[in-house]
Amino acid sequence: MAITKAAPTGADSHEPVRGAPEPEEPTGTAQDHSSQDNGSRDNGSQDSKSPLVLTMLLLLLVLLQGPIRGALSAPVMQSWMTVFVAVLVQALPFLVLGVLLSAAIAVFVPPAFFARALPSRPALAVPVAGMAGAMLPGCECASVPVAGALVRRGVTPAAALAFLLSAPAINPIVLTATAVAFPRNPEMVVGRFVASLLVSCVMGWLWQRLGRTDWLRTPERSHYEGPSKGAAFWNSVRHDVMHAGGFLVLGAMAAATLKAVAPASWLRTAAANPLVAILALAILAVLLSICSEADAFVAASLTQFSLTAKLTFLVVGPMIDLKLFAMQAGTFGRGFALRFAPATFALAITGAVLTGAVLL
Fold first, then answer.
1. N or C: which end of the chain has fewer CB within 10 A?
2. Which residues lie closer than 8 Å to 158 by C-beta, 6 or more apart?
């Protein structure tokens, strides 16, 4: 009797072994290829759409050149363009110079220098830090990371906050720009210096007395402290020029619109009431977020308002506005910004009004 062997069920069989795992197709490669294909397809579509959008925009401008020319030749637009260009031309040199100096200080001056120069007692370190802002040019975009570096190096927060408020408000570039913007009112320069320094020191002392450590988050490493100081310098310059220049354009547009579009009766009504005028320009300073090297020219263009209201605009803007609130929240924490910003806003208005009542 012949013995027959069972048919093999392993690798030699055409049927798969039951329970054996089926070979899986590598999904990562397929997904990578699909994502690359989608990315290249999206990039290709975007590249193809860009010339089309530009062409359509140029065609639209050509078709509407008659109405556009007529609108630009209107007296209202002529007045708007005059104020807009005048503010930009006057403010741009000071903006560029301030950005260059602030970037040089943020990159090449080590924060340990400030820590060694400040007194050990916090009560004395606050006014010294406030006065240091008068000697070190820098806009508010650079004062926040520098103040964060001071806190990270062990400087008392009260002194660092005093420097944060005073540096963009009373540095030489800002005071020179204020003197150029108000050639017939030199007291505006003195008033801006006194009010801003007073508010900076008072806010520092208030934080020393009432501030809590859990309100202030220790700042992270600043982006200015890169391995290559030359690259960090030019990165800082490009960032601040684009950032501050954009807000300068918005500020010039707002000032030109107020001068050309807003009815003169409305501005006279707001300017005639001292309290309304002060609050209006204080809120306007927060919303416009103009760089401190250029805000004096915008304030000088608001001829309907009193010098005290303009001084409020100049004191409030460099200390608290929309971009500063975002930068302070990102550096020191949202809890800090929600407490520090309203107190700074109220104290800046109070300091500007009191200084204006004495000097203006």
1. N
2. 122, 125, 126, 204, 205, 207, 208, 211
Torsion, Cα 25 27 30 36, to 10 degrees, reads: -170
Total number of residues shown for the chain: 360
**153 DSSP assignment:** T
Tokens at residue 326, please? 């975002």
Give the C-alpha separation, 32 to 197, whole Å: 58
What DSSP string runs through 10-39? STTSSSPPTTPPPPPP-HHHHHHHHHHHHH
∠ Cα 161 116 95 (to 5°): 50
Helix and strand totals (H; E) in the chain: 16, 0
Q: How far apart are CA 195 and CA 55, in angstroms?
A: 53
Average pLDDT estimate for 154-170: 90
- Note if the pTM is more than 0.85: no
Contact 174, 346 (CB under 8 A): no
DSSP 270: H
Cβ-proximal residues to 20 (8 Å cutoff; 6+ apart), any chain: none
Say whether pLDDT at 314 is over 90: yes
**Residue 37 to residues 29, 123, 332: CA-CA distances in angstroms?**
12, 63, 42
The structure tokens listed for 54 are 């530009």
* Secondary structure of residue 348 in the 3-state scheme: helix
Per residue in 55-75, is it b (16+ CB within 10 Å) or e — as a string? Answer: eeeeeeeeeeeeeeeeeeeee
At residue 137, φ and ψ (nearest 5 deg) are -65, 140
Q: Which residue has the tokens 């949202």?
A: 334
Is it the case that residue 160 has pLDDT exceeding 50?
yes
Task: Give the span between the Cα atoms of 353 and 358, in whole angstroms.
Answer: 9
Tell me if 290 sits within 8 A of 334, measured CB to CB.
Answer: no
